[in-house]
Amino acid sequence: MMQNRRALSNINVNVVGARLPCSVAVGERGSSDKNALYDKQPFHPVQRPCPRKFPVSIAGDHQQLLLPEETKKTGHVLPDLNEPDRTVIDLEDYKMMAGDFSAPVFVQHTEAILVEIDEMDEIEMEDAYEEPIMDIDICDKKDPLAVTEYIDDLYRYYKKVEGSGCVPPNYMDQQFDINEHMRAILIDWLIEVQYKFQLMDETLYLTVNLIDRFLSLYPIVRKKLQLVGVTAMLLACKYEEVSVPIVEDLILISDRAYNRKEVLDMERLMVNTLQFNMSVPTPYVFMRRFLKAAQSDKKLVLFAFFIMELCLVEYEMLNFPPSLLAASAIYTAQCTLSRFKFWSKSCEYYTGYTEELLLECSKRMVAFHQSAGSGKLTGVYRKYSMPKFGYAAKAEPASFLLNATL
């Protein structure tokens, strides 16, 4: 049967809403004989849904292939496709038997439509696909420490109040004896102290936040800058750590440049200047949540924190709020490890930042990565060049982001 079929170039059998130019006989309902005798009842083709939008929009209900009277009078019938000795007659044969008649435009251009459909099929599939936003807390529903019932409200609150923990990006102009380079030296040293004392990451981020907030409100001389740093770390340890380093340890690591009374006096001055406000959202708070949204593995986590700690040293990164810094660090880490730009719908949903908003900050992070191993401030680079941190600093920088546009 298949060998006797002709090309279906002009047959409009599959056009939605079309009527066939003949009548076909059908057997009685329930008859077991497949080759039942023909009767004179008209054949009604089964209406099937069209999976593509393009032909449906053309073949509307008002556009039907109407049979001319000459065709109805001749009584030509469509052969039974189940019989092997019959041949399928195409539209040209019907024209010869029933006389020529003009078909609508959509029938004349069936082949052109099908070609366009094939070309558009892949594009329509892409447009129809929408990346789902996953529930990143579904696995923690039974963990009371995850507080999944309140986690979204908590981070909405963090985003709302994160500005209270930010400082003016030009606050160093109010300092008469210190500058941004001295600040960078201090924080680079404190990153090493945090690693030597095996303190938590939360402690480091809060330490830097306390330093910047204090310096933005109180002028300090350069010989007291290191005292501000160790005192800020002492306060952060009291807030975050279970086992707090004693004051003598901090005095020892600062090469005994200060005594116990000076440290306690500075501690009193700092908490009063900051009005005892220690609970502010730092970039670390957002990093943990955003890394979960990115479905991060250990390699991505280490590299994201490497990029983030590079930003802690840089004074210019105070221009960006903590949540944007965290999201940009993860975006930069994903692009660096995958070697192409990547930002999922889930990341966009949970961070609240599109790829376009992250690009400027990410470009600066790539520049910091490129120069991390050179210069005098290499504390972060040396820390993340160790096996414990997965040699994160050794990764090839995502230089392609420097020229990227959206």
UniProtKB/TrEMBL annotation:
Segments forming domain Cyclin-like: 188-272, 285-367
Transmembrane segments: none
Gene3D superfamilies: Cyclin-like
GO annotation terms (biological process): cell division; response to gamma radiation
Residue span, Cyclin C-terminal domain: 281-398
The keyword Cell cycle is assigned to this record: yes
SMART domains: CYCLIN, Cyclin_C
Alphabetized SUPFAM superfamilies for the sequence: Cyclin-like (SSF47954)
PROSITE patterns: CYCLINS (PS00292)
Keywords per UniProt: Cell cycle, Cell division, Cyclin
Family designation: Belongs to the cyclin family. Cyclin AB subfamily.
Annotated PANTHER family: CYCLINS
Name of the protein in question: G2/mitotic-specific cyclin-2-like isoform X1
Organism: Punica granatum
Gene, per the UniProt record: LOC116194956
